[in-house]
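[[Per-residue structure]]
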Amino acid sequence: MSGPRAPKGTYDLLPDEAALRDDVVATAARVFGAHGYRRVVTPEFEETGLFERGVGEATDIVRKEMYTFEDKGGRSLTLRPEGTAPICRLYVEHGLHKWPQPVKLWYYCPMFRYERPQAGRYREHYQLGAEAIGSPAPEVDAEVIAMLAQLFAELGIGGLRLAVNSMGDPACRPAYVGRLREYLRGREDELCADCRERLELNPLRTFDCKVESCRAVLDEAPHIDEHLCPECREHFDTVLGLLRRVGLEPELDFRLVRGLDYYTRTTFEFSSDRLGAQSGVGGGGRYDGLVEQVGGPPTPGVGFGSGLERITLAMGAREAPGLGPAAFVVAFTDEVRGDAFVLAQGLRRAGLAVELDLAGRSAKGQLKQAGRSGAAYAVLLGLEELPPETVRVKALAGGGEEDVPAAGVAAWLTARKESE
C-alpha cells in the first residue's frame, strides 16, 4: 500500500528548493523596489463574480479552470486563479485612486487553476507579479517590460525572446473582431469544437488554441495591426521605441492575445528556449478597462505575471545559496551540554545563525555534524586544557583555531563575519 502523496498538480518544496525560491523572490523584491513598486497581499479566495467580470466569461480560466465553491453562508467564492483582478479590487476598495498615480504594486502568492499538470505548470503554482495602475503613458508599459527583463537577466535566465503585440482599444478593436469572426466563420469546419465555441463568445480567444488544424487557419487570419487606430498605433510605436533604446529586441507577434479578456493595447510575453514547447516564462500587458469592470472609475493599468516554477526551470540546475550557520557549538562533555545550549541561545540573540547538537552525539560526531552543517566555525566547550569561561573557536575550512573568552565569542564571530 502506497503512503500519502501530495494532491495531483501540487508539489512540496524541500529545504534546498525552498532556499532557491526565497533567493528568486528576494531578487525580485530588490529589482521591483528599485523601480518604486511596493508589495501587497490579497486573500487566497475572492468573490467569484470578480473573476467572471474581470477575467472574462469566455476565457478558459473562467469556463474550465477555476476552483469555485459555496461557503456556509451560501456565497460563491473562488480560489485566486490570477493576480491582476484582485489587485484592481484592492485599488478600488482602499481608495488608491487618491494616491499619486500611477500606483505601483507587486505581489508573490499562490494561484489555483484546474489544468493538466505538466513541466512547470501545476494546479497550485506560485506567481510573481507587478501592476502599475493609474497612467495611460506608454512609458509605463515599457517600464514594466524592462523591469521583468532585468529580473530575468539578474537571475541568469538565457535564451530569452520577447514577443509583443497591440490589442487595440474599444475604439478600433471591434472592427477587427468583426472581420476576424467573419473570416473564421468561412473556415468554421476546419476549427476544433472549442474554437467554434470561442468564435461566438470571443473570436480573439481562438489564438490561444494549440490544435494544429486551428493554428493553420489562424496563420492566414487578418492581423490586428492592420486595424489599429492612430492613437493605438502611436502608443505601440512609442513602447517599441523605448524598449529598443534600452537594449531589448521586441519581436512582433499578432497571435499574442494572452489568455485573459481584460487586455487592451500592449501585450507581451517572454519565452526561453530552455523550456521546450511550453516556453513561456512570464508576460502581461495593458488593461485600461479592468478597474472599471470590477466596480471602480475608468482607470488605466498595466502589469505582468511570472510563475516561479517556470522561472526556476529556465534558470537551470543551481546550487542552493549558502545558508550555513556562522557557528556550530560543540560540547566535549555531557556536563557542559547545558552551557552549550545557553551559549548558542546567546549567540542567536546577538544576531548570529548558530546550531548545536540535539541528538546526543559524541564530540567526534558533533564535529562531523558541524562540517555537514556548512558552519564557518565550531565553538568548542569543555576541553580540559582550556581555562574557565573560555572556548576554542575552530575554523572548519582552514583549520586554524583561537581561544576566546566565552563572553566575547559573539563579538569575535561578528567581526570575522563582517570582514569576509
User: Anything to note?
Assistant: The mean pLDDT is 91. The domain at 15-172+228-315 is CATH 3.30.930.10 (BirA Bifunctional Protein; domain 2). The two ends are 52 Å apart (CA to CA). The longest helix spans residues 15-34.
